[in-house]
TrEMBL record:
GO-annotated molecular function: iron ion binding; iron-sulfur cluster binding
GO cellular component, one term: mitochondrial matrix
Protein's name according to its UniProt entry: Scaffold protein Nfu/NifU N-terminal domain-containing protein
GO BP field: [4Fe-4S] cluster assembly
Organism: Kuraishia capsulata CBS 1993
Length: 255
């Protein structure tokens, strides 16, 4: 479970040179890796450099190559590596989600072989000053900030503030993230989107209920429940997986 009771670090608010808004560019690049609660996700941390400009206050989830082509040239380079499934680009880290271990026995798709390839790709992108995000996508992100807004009602404002200052930093430490989607005042339901390592982690339900939901309910009395939402592609994938699982169960029952 991703702990939300430990000492939490503040959100990244540091400034850096304007050129870093679009590219990885500096004299050297120090890349460290950190495991996450999800065995199929690995966090690549770049010390003293940042992937996102200060005008973008949340992480960027890139699901696949078609999406990356319009968002992130850096992500396109990483998706060329066999086994890379999705990316979460944070302020000073990238969480890479690879193909699940139980879906492949290919050693080339395991972390010992894949990790050095990812590091090499990041180092090459650094040397060639590959843009992290396109200028157009940065402008889009700036228009859809998740900071509390003056026009928000009091409950929504408080929920956003808690997510941004108390919950998201803890999740980002473990290579994940959470984005606010909406609040239904009639049912007291907060709808969120889990990102990065949190999205496919086996402990995501525990994180959701015992971490995020319990904290929001404790501080905001109007909150009764927290529910995750799925993108259209995730819903289709889940439906296909459920069909396959049912088919396998039926086949096993007839033996």
């Amino acid at each position: 479970m991703l702990s939300l009771t430990r000492s939490l670090t503040p959100r990244f608010q540091g400034a850096f040179p304007r050129f870093a808004k679009l590219t990885l560019a500096a004299r050297w690049l120090s890349i460290q890796t950190a495991t996450t609660p999800n065995e199929n996700s690995l966090k690549f941390i770049v010390k003293d450099h940042h992937f996102l400009p200060p005008s973008v206050d949340h992480s960027v989830d890139v699901e696949d190559l078609p999406a990356a082509s319009d968002k992130s040239p850096l992500a396109v380079s990483l998706f060329k590596l066999n086994g890379v499934m999705s990316l979460l680009i944070g302020p000073d880290f990238i969480t890479v989600n690879k193909v699940e271990d139980d879906l492949s026995n290919n050693p080339e798709l395991q972390w010992p072989a894949l990790k050095p390839k990812i590091i090499d790709t990041l180092e090459t992108a650094f040397k060639e000053k590959t843009p992290v995000l396109t200028t157009e996508y940065i402008r889009e992100l700036e228009r859809t900030q998740e900071e509390p807004q003056d026009e928000d009602d009091d409950v929504t404002y408080e929920i956003k503030e808690l997510l941004n200052t108390r919950i998201r930093p803890a999740l980002q430490d473990d290579g994940g993230d959470v984005h606010f989607r909406s609040f239904d005042p009639h049912t007291g339901t907060v709808y969120i989107k889990l990102k990065g390592a949190c999205k496919s982690c086996s402990l995501s339900e525990e994180t959701l209920k015992n971490g995020i939901e319990s904290m929001l309910k404790y501080y905001v009395e109007e909150v009764n429940e927290v529910k995750p939402i799925l993108d259209l592609e995730e819903e289709v994938s889940l439906q296909e997986f459920e069909k396959l699982e049912a088919k396998l169960k039926a086949s096993s029952a007839t033996r």
